[in-house]
Amino acid sequence: MKESMLESVLAYIEKSINYLPIEDVEKENLYQLLAESEYSIDFSIKFKANKKLKVFKAFRVLHNSLLGPYKGGIRVYWDVDLEEISGLATLMTIKNAFLGIPFGGSKGGIRLDVKDLTEEEKEFILREYIRKLSIFIDEKTDIPAPDIGTTEKDMDIIFDEYARIKGKNIYSIVTGKSTELLGIEFRKLSTGYGIGYLTDKVIQDVFKNKEVRIVIQGFGNVGSHLFKKLEDLGYKIYGVSDSHGGIYSPEGLKFEEVLIAKDKYGTVVGLSKTKDSVKVVDTERFLELECDILIPAAKENVINSDNVKNIKTKIIVEGANSPVTEEAENMLNQMGILVIPDILANGGGVYVSYYEWLKGNGIQNITDSFVENIMKEKLISAYKEIDIISKNLNISYRTASYIKALEKLYKVAKLRGVI
To answer: Annotated active-site positions, please?
Structure first.
């Protein structure tokens, strides 16, 4: 049975609220404020192809705007549903509060398999998606971004369609755009690089050297850039996977070789055809490889009650959103495995999205080097803070992160008379 991300996030909120030094009634009020989304939009997208009408379910959840405009990506995936989108939107509210970014949380989704579509069909669906949402959102209300199944090109399409609807260019309506549309080039690298910088800091603190075995699940936008950054920082990656399977080498893998194999064969597994030292690992067994650092950077709930007992690593860095279920994390804590939570580890992309939004609103002189440096500085500062909270209260990094986020939300809600 698929564990609900929404239930998991709400459980972490409920648990972490108890650490706040506030009255019980205020704890209950804060939980109620975050337990339900402010808006939940469920609609359909229809188009005819070869005389056959196709209908796709679509969603946009605007969870909470206490700290600022709603902010969250658009996920295009074959099994996405409203509950998943609600969980992701709630997580975005917590993440932005934790990172000190003046945004609320939102998320969008379209239930379809992009592999079944032509580029023209996908473009039509995205344009229809934003047309239907345009009556609910604007650049000061809700700002979409890329997520699983969407790209920079897709964000350019959304920008263009919104400009057609409004009759003028509005550069801050969406982030993750091309630089020609006032996007930030570093945005494509930001999440992966952020995870890389944070992983480097954790390794320095825990292992004191770079002789560690790192395994990365995922070689998409996040996983590939993460691989490259860690390699540039002097680390060896021993295993990597994609949707077709995984590979492992006791000698370590080289980024350029994996990239060439991916381009040639359509999967990282193709590298095993040209290098004898590279072994193919079944998808289900890949996460169970023995290593020092395991970075699930693909999809949620991949480490769960079914496989957690077989995890053989010292540290898990959550590159994806909620790759570890609540039940699994409780067991990992008992096993002595440190989990660096998603709201910290993959927060780099949100920082850059914020600066792209500022740029779209007329704030100039935002360079890639400036954004990369401030992202790195902010992530490492947040890590140091939750490390102190975690040690002082003898709690997990995730609980410490949620406490920091909830303190921010509580203070603003109190000032605004919401609770």
So the answer is: 107
